[in-house]
Design brief:
The chain has 3 domains: 1-61 and 428-452, Glutamate Dehydrogenase, chain A, domain 3 (Glutamate Dehydrogenase, Chain A, domain 3), CATH 1.10.285.10; 64-197, Rossmann fold (3-Layer(aba) Sandwich); 215-371, NAD(P)-binding Rossmann-like Domain (Rossmann fold, 3-Layer(aba) Sandwich), CATH 3.40.50. The strands form 2 sheets. The chain has a 7-stranded mixed beta sheet, sandwiched between helices. It is an alpha/beta fold. α2 (27-37) packs parallel to α6 (108-125). It has 18 helices and 12 strands. The protein is 47% helix and 16% strand.
């Protein structure tokens, strides 16, 4: 793990020690906070008022942490009990904003790491939203429609009292798509007797949702990668690319990569890696994953010459562009070394913190254009904020208008990160640029609002 950069005025050791003491056995949260703090020594040296106001200690402690029981009845009539979470991390810039994740790996440390990342990601969009995250340790795989509905209704029966379009606005994440958002919104409306469309984002376009939200995270990460390459006077056109995962973010990253002239030759699911050297057939891939909800082995069975490698990694496949879009810490040191050896030019994180610190260090040392998730995958939450704007205005926007706004926002985030990195003596270091730019926006708002 990279050592924290400090000087005689900005010793961050006590802050890190306090995080470890207050949040034991939460390695992902420790990793996320260290990754940000690692970049802040020069900022604190230049702006001692941040340290004097205790900004770091306050920033690393959530404003509110909610843990609650979620009881529900399965199709066999058995009572099931899951645990629900919502971490409302920081509201200095606006209402808490961040997704809900339904996955058996969900615990408080995971939700805190995601919420902490969300603070800076949301700040980079410039759209006036704070950071939060939530979810439950439910495994939705194999559950019936009725079971998913009953679970969502039970989950919202507790969570609703903490939400509001000016308070906390959840969205989807892993395991929470349009179906789940629909059930959650229906229960919120039933309990509150209000049609408060802005309280959840990711809704269906027929009842308050915004066109292009489904595509936004995947499209956005590709736009960010294209901006990084354009700064080096090249592009994605004609390049081989790999995308980990095969969920919503991965599918629409693949779609936009194809649209920009790249050839995506590999993607993955939890069972292994699919390789199609001719380029993935996006129509078939969507049929398998979105309509039939099957594994990638079904694609390989239908596509001549495509190969499925059980347990394999897309990062072993030679490529010029890599997009980790599955989950946290999926791309480690060994995979990073192979990507660099195979000539990768750009890596952009579509998932939240999918690259380990060791992998990030290898990319940075090798001069690979590396887009950290808090910048590169901000298109999803940015479009959610646009959905909130659309709802507040009682309007319906078009797909083209929303995508144009997304393109502008991702370009603005890229330029802000690049300019900030250069300002602090780290040209083309998007990790430094994203962390410092996001931090300054939040820290300035916290200073202005006093010790709260």
């Amino acid at each position: 793990m990279t050592a924290v950069r400090t000087d005689h005025r900005t010793d961050l050791g006590p802050v890190l020690a306090d995080i470890a003491r207050r949040s034991p056995a939460e390695p992902e949260f420790h990793q996320a906070t260290r990754e940000v703090l690692d970049c802040l020594g020069p900022v604190l040296a230049r702006h001692p008022e941040y340290a004097e106001a205790g900004i770091l200690s306050r920033l690393c402690e959530p404003e509110r942490q909610l843990i609650f029981r979620v009881p529900w009845v399965d199709d066999a009539g058995r009572t099931q009990v899951n645990r629900g979470f919502r971490v409302e991390f920081n509201s200095a810039l606006g209402p808490y904003k961040g997704g809900l994740r339904f996955h058996p790996s969900v615990n408080l440390g995971i939700v805190k790491f995601l919420g902490f990342e969300q603070i800076f990601k949301n700040a980079l969009t410039g759209l006036g939203i704070g950071g939060g995250k939530g979810g439950a340790d439910l495994d939705p795989r194999g559950r019936s429609e009725g079971e998913i509905m009953r679970f969502c209704q039970s989950f919202m029966t507790e969570l609703y009292r903490h939400l509001g379009e000016s308070t906390d606005v959840p969205a989807g994440d892993i395991g929470v798509g349009g179906r789940e958002i629909g059930y959650l919104f229906g229960q919120y409306r039933r309990i509150t007797n209000r049609y408060e469309a802005g309280v959840l984002t990711g809704k269906g376009t027929g009842w308050g949702g915004i066109p292009a939200r489904t595509e936004a995270t995947g499209y956005g990460v590709v736009y960010f990668a294209e901006h990084m390459l354009a700064a080096r006077e090249t592009s994605l056109a004609g390049r081989r690319a790999v995308v980990s995962g095969s969920g919503n973010v991965a599918l629409y990253a693949i779609e936009k990569l194809h649209a920009l002239g790249a050839t995506v030759v590999a993607c993955s699911d939890s069972a292994g890696c699919l390789v199609d050297e001719r380029g993935l057939d996006l129509g078939l891939l969507k049929e398998v994953k979105e309509v039939r909800r099957e594994r990638l082995t079904a694609y390989a069975a239908l596509r001549p010459k495509a190969r499925f490698r059980p347990g394999g990694s897309v990062f072993d496949v030679p490529c010029a562009a890599a997009f980790p879009c599955a989950t946290q810490n999926e791309l480690g040191q060994e995979q990073a070394i192979r990507l660099v050896a195979n000539g990768v030019l750009v890596v952009a994180e579509g998932a939240n913190m999918p690259c380990t610190p060791a992998a990030v260090a290898i990319f940075r040392d090798a001069g690979v254009a590396f887009g950290p998730g808090k910048a590169a995958n901000a298109g999803g939450v940015a479009t959610s904020a646009l959905e909130m704007q659309q709802n507040a205005a009682r309007q319906r926007w078009t797909f083209g208008y929303t995508e144009r706004r997304l393109v502008e926002i991702m370009g603005g985030i890229h330029d802000l990160c690049r300019e900030t990195a250069a300002e602090y003596g780290a040209p083309e270091d998007y990790v430094t640029g994203a962390n410092i730019a996001g931090f300054r926006r939040v820290a300035d708002a916290m200073l202005a609002q006093g010790v709260v």
